[in-house]
């Protein structure tokens, strides 16, 4: 039976992912000069304690936090332009959560979150979610104004050109995957991938759609085309941590 994992495609994350992503973002967000500090993030002098449900939850928490960091200026502009921030009912300690969840909300095209498997709700996440949903129209309008101002088809075009080039280079790199030999043998991985429709080829130069090769230096490392990331992460091999994305 196919298990449901932490991320339900484009429909949002579990509450615990948002909380952990907010804690990560709190420690890495860009500090502005006091005379330019319009959005305040509270005190981050104490290292946050994080508990991750599994390896997948950990990775998506970091991805969400770093995506929020990448678009921090834009997200702050949306909050200020829409007059959603500041809000007396949202303490500074929850600003990181507000920014992280706003990034995810616009990534979902302002569609409501839909999680199918149950997890204990987190009060802070529920509070921020209700607040964002209440002002979705204003937030979407503020994002549209930002795109018009920057003549941008999507938010990616609002990023500085050097950052966009880095993104393009990174997205084109092949995916390296470790085989967790404590849980599965190489032969069983090859057999499972074959059942899933993947073809083993000799090298990266032979890549087609559903293909992979074995790293020539590390025989417990597999290399896949970058376009297969989402398909790979939905395999049971990843859900069971038998394969680990590098």
Descriptive keywords:
246 residues; alpha+beta; Alpha-Beta Plaits; 5 strands; 7% strand; disordered N terminus; NSUN7 methyltransferase
Can you tell me about this structure?
α1 packs across α2, α2 packs across α4 and α3 (72-81) crosses α6. The chain is α+β, with helices and mostly antiparallel strands and 246 residues long. The chain has two domains: 15-165; 173-245, Sun protein, domain 3 (Alpha-Beta Plaits, 2-Layer Sandwich). The radius of gyration is 20 Å and the shape is globular. The model is unreliable at 1-9 (pLDDT under 50). Helices cover 45% and strands 7% of the residues. The two termini are 26 Å apart. β3 (211-214) and β4 form a beta hairpin. One of its GO terms (molecular function) is methyltransferase activity.
Number of strands: 5
Q: How far do the termini sit from each other?
A: 26 Å
Judged by helices, strands and strand pairing, the structural class is: alpha+beta
Number of domains: 2
The helicity comes to 40-55%
Question: What's the pLDDT, averaged over the residues?
Answer: 88
Strands in their spatial order, largest beta sheet: 2-3-4-1-5
Whole-angstrom Rg: 20 Å
User: Which shape, going by the Cα principal axes?
Assistant: globular
The ordered string of helix (H) and strand (E) elements is: HHHHHHHEHEEEHHE
Number of helices: 10
Which stretches are low in confidence, meaning pLDDT under 50 for 5 or more residues running?
1-9
| Percent of residues in β-strands | 5-15%
The major sheet is characterized as: 5 strands, mixed
